[in-house]
Design goal:
Length: 412
């Protein structure tokens, strides 16, 4: 058995893709030869009815040659013509048809993600019928095998990883219910629910059709594949009443203009200022309109630090709770405008200013793997000097606790 993995970029693919560099001049002999000996990525497998028709044709042929009966010869000719016509019409059905996979939206564990497959018919006159598109989703390997190896020469761990990937592979059939008219396109949606976080590869395995008579199943192998990072599932957590409320409700006034409650200064009235801000007593003393200027209220922001090398993360289930808890807490703090930065292990501190910064950090968190304990992975002096730093420690057999400056703040 040959083992090989290959990654292809998403885009248009199929018989209808214009490959000018590989396209040869049109000749009828090339068409006839393509019908007799199709390319390797094209497969035509007879169905049960097709096998019966072939067997019946062989029986009638032997009877016709033995008896020299013209009626049997005519019957044999009709049956063989039906088989040939089925193959020709199946070839025309796939001619100039192309497909591509759209970029999926945000993907989370346990939530439905819509994967769009677009089909386009480039023929001028003939429609396309009965396409069965087989989609697959497989987890991406950490170290892809780029050269072909056999089970005899390949490494045992590599073979086990590929078999595990085959077992975790998800298959879905997207069928074209109506016909696809010439110069038209259609989008087939696949509602895919990821079962685990990490890097996934969504691809089109092959496109098949039983058109026109159902005697053959013609399949065209596809090489479309798109990589997608699946974020952890949302996690329910609770703030500890004694310490969590203190951190959430804390706010401080800073010396800049805003809509706070403390008076910062008085200034002259300008067009557009609200009349409610006019300080009438000060205006009467100075004989000019003065308005009150308040200080702005600023809430304290937090930083998140996830340690995957802690000695307590010995169980995979508890480590998954850690990843989900960290991702959910980061999103909640970002929506509240209280997330300053995030960090994973000994990596660089990543400031979180925009949604794309948070997406980048969540992508890194989604592919995080549990590692062995490293005594130098958690610098204790950094935990003491950083203010409003959120770290995570295990609790019990499956719980996770969020610590803020050494105090217990939330549990999941």
């Amino acid at each position: 058995m040959t083992i090989a993995t290959k990654t292809f970029a998403a885009g248009w693919d199929g018989p209808g893709v214009d490959r000018k560099k590989q396209q040869a001049p049109f000749r009828w002999r090339n068409v006839v030869w393509a019908l007799i000996c199709p390319r390797r990525e094209q497969h035509m497998v007879p169905t049960v009815s097709g096998v019966l028709l072939i067997g019946l044709s062989l029986g009638i042929g032997m009877a016709a040659y033995n008896s020299s009966n013209n009626i049997l010869f005519i019957t044999l000719a009709l049956m063989l013509a039906c088989l040939i016509l089925s193959g020709v019409l199946a070839w025309f059905n796939f001619s100039k048809v192309r497909w591509q996979i759209g970029r999926p939206a945000l993907a989370r564990v346990g939530q439905s993600t819509s994967v769009a497959l677009e089909l386009a018919n480039g023929k001028m006159f003939l429609p396309t019928y009965g396409l069965d598109c087989v989609m697959r989703a497989r987890p991406g390997l950490k170290d892809e095998i780029v050269r072909p190896e056999t089970t005899l020469t390949g490494k045992g761990m590599d073979v086990k990883a590929i078999w595990k990937e085959k077992l975790e592979e998800e298959i879905a059939h997207l069928r074209l219910a109506a016909r696809l008219d010439p110069q038209d396109s259609v989008i087939l949606d696949w509602e895919w629910v990821p079962k685990k976080r990490g890097r996934w590869k969504l691809g089109l395995r092959h496109v098949a059709s039983f058109f026109p008579f159902g005697f053959f199943n013609k399949r065209l192998s596809a090489v479309l594949e798109r990589e997608l990072i699946v974020w952890p599932a949302p996690c329910e957590y609770q703030w500890v009443a004694s310490t969590g409320a203190k951190w959430l409700s804390g706010a401080s006034n800073i010396s800049r203009m805003g809509q706070g409650s403390d008076l910062l200064a008085l200034r002259r009235y300008e067009t557009g200022d609200s009349h409610r801000l006019i300080h009438w007593k000060a205006s009467a003393r100075t004989r000019q309109l003065l308005v009150r200027q308040f200080s702005a209220e600023a809430t304290e922001s937090f930083s998140i630090w996830v340690h995957s090398k802690n000695a307590g993360w010995a169980k995979a289930e508890q480590f998954e709770v850690l990843v989900s808890f960290a991702a959910t807490l980061a999103e909640d703090l970002f929506r509240a405008g209280r997330l300053a930065s995030a960090r994973i292990d000994d990596g660089a501190v990543q400031p979180i200013r925009h949604w794309r910064d948070l997406e980048s950090w969540l992508d890194a968190l989604a592919v995080l793997e549990m590692e062995k304990f490293n005594a130098n992975a958690i610098p204790r002096e950094s935990l003491r000097t950083n203010r409003n730093l959120i770290t995570f420690v295990p609790e019990g057999q499956a719980g996770v606790v969020a610590m803020i400056d050494g105090e217990k703040a939330a549990t999941a």
